[in-house]
Amino acid sequence: MISINDQEFRSFQTFIYDSAGITLSAAKKQLVSGRLSKRVQARNLDSFDAYFSLLASGNDPGEVQTAVDLLTTNETYFFREPRHFEALRSILRKASGQQSFRVWSAACSTGEEVYSLAMMLDDERGAKPWELMGSDISTRVLSRARAGHYPLERTRHIPAEYLKRYCLKGVEDQEGTLLVQRALRQRAVFSQVNLNEALPNIGRFDVIFLRNVLIYFNQDTKARVVDRVLSALKPGGYFFIGHSESLHQVTNLVKQVAPSVYCKLQ
Length: 266
Known about the structure:
Layout: H1 6-20, H2 29-42, H3 48-56, H4 61-72, H5 82-94, E1 102-105, H6 112-125, E2 131-136, H7 139-147, E3 149-151, H8 160-166, E4 167-169, E5 177-180, H9 182-187, E6 188-192, E7 205-209, H10 219-230, E8 233-240, E9 254-258, E10 261-264
Helix pairs in contact: 1-3, 5-6
């Protein structure tokens, strides 16, 4: 296996910061090596430096996207941080008379968060209109999210009632997997969005989930990303971040209403 030296690692630190605003600590050196080594070999290159030169040349945007995909993918699972979903249920019930309700799962990775939100929206809103968007910088994970097909071990936190109502258990050659119900998959819209750039025209939302993402940004980037994302949140709307994250000295546009849950000021 080709090893990565310190200079090469610094090149990829710069690459992913410029591409996605993500700050990689020195502790991520082996992660970079592990995730990119197969691409170095697949392109018949003899070093990480040669692979970086390929990316920097601008001649292969597809390979650049592949590298970004590999370096930004994070593990997720259904109904992660269940207190957030309890808070969301309360928000939905308070908004039961609202004509429409829009939710954005930013940095949604492989889609487990999106479908968790979809199950709750369908359960609480019933026939009342709702919209749900999931976004990520990685086209690879968005493709997996659209499929809505997961190993069973990743679905163990789905409430039993929701498993029965919204999921199909694989049989025969699909044994050991689960497929989200087609009607639910069709309700979710997935789009590639780079939070480190100006947002596309996505409208405004009642709730935005941006969880377990801010920890990868330095303070300046974090502030820019949060302001950018909050511009898509309606006044009085709710903003969810990860339990290990904080908005301290990041923004004054919201007030905290529960652990890692914020309401946008009017």
